Prior knowledge:
Rossmann fold, alpha+beta, 8-stranded antiparallel beta barrel, binds S-adenosylmethionine, 2 domains, 7-stranded mixed β-sheet, elongated, 21% helix
Amino acid sequence: xITLPWRTLxxxxxxxxxxxxxxxxxxxxxxxxxGMACPAHAQAGxxxxxxxxxxxxxxxxxxxxxxxxxxxxxxLGSGDGRIVITAARRFxxxxxxxxxxxxxxxxxxxxxxxxxxxxxxxxxxxDLFKTDLSPYSVxxxxxxxxxxxxxRPLVLRLRPGTRVVSHDWDMGEWLPDRTVTLDVPDKAVxxxxxxxxxxxxxxxxxxxxxxxxxxxxxxLERRFQVVQGRAxxxxxxxxxxxxxxxSDLHLSGPGGELxxxxxxxxxxxxxxxxxxxxxxxxxxxxxxQQGSGEVCKI
Length: 298
Ligand SMILES: C[S@@+](CC[C@H](N)C(=O)[O-])C[C@H]1O[C@@H](n2cnc3c(N)ncnc32)[C@H](O)[C@@H]1O
């Protein structure tokens, strides 16, 4: 089912300036890509259209994010509420859907009552760009690439470990931690009848200099979740490559393998080594403190 409520969109939530121009291009591109004619009254620059995520894709999104009863989820642009309702009904989570089209908000509330989850699935008429994302452990979205890119800096500031799942669209240079592709024979848009579901886990800020006992040091650089740097003693630093998923760091290199976690220690972030091998074997149980400057002071 496709409904394109172009006219009913909340005027105050419409993009302006560069955002409006970008969305105009995207919507034109989307219409061409999906081979659908824009309705005569569609104004280029109107917001993201209402297109539902098919049920099997909704399930895949929630499974990919490992949603459970302990989670609080938000769907940005919640349409008829299906993602929040499924998260509550099938996975026991609590959720909020924010949506700018008032009729869709009403419909979502009715759907939640029908599904018996009105106590755990809330819907608000609200602009997603004016929504505080910090209380949520899982963020879901089916928007547009440019909108995802605008959300990216906000998402990257969220608590490490927050899971973000997007139907079809990615986040540019911030590559997903995982992607699954699903056959969707009845997909309303697109020619390939496939949906892609992307997962990102907000990475912790592990970059910088970390100093352990006896001159052990890690000097790390991070771009999104990809980490590289040097690890070892003051004079024998070995190249290390790896990733950070939430607060968990995994490095490997000629020195061996290392797993560490960024945790709070005495009110400050510290890197606690959980497991290590090779020349880093001796680092088991070692805690690294944040250093400053070029090298650790012994
Ligand atoms: C592609 S639909 C996805 C609906 C639902 N999340 C799903 O996956 O089935 C995108 C939804 O975002 C809503 N939307 C667009 N711009 C919005 C904004 N600024 N704030 C809140 N909702 C918005 C649209 O009205 C539409 O219902």
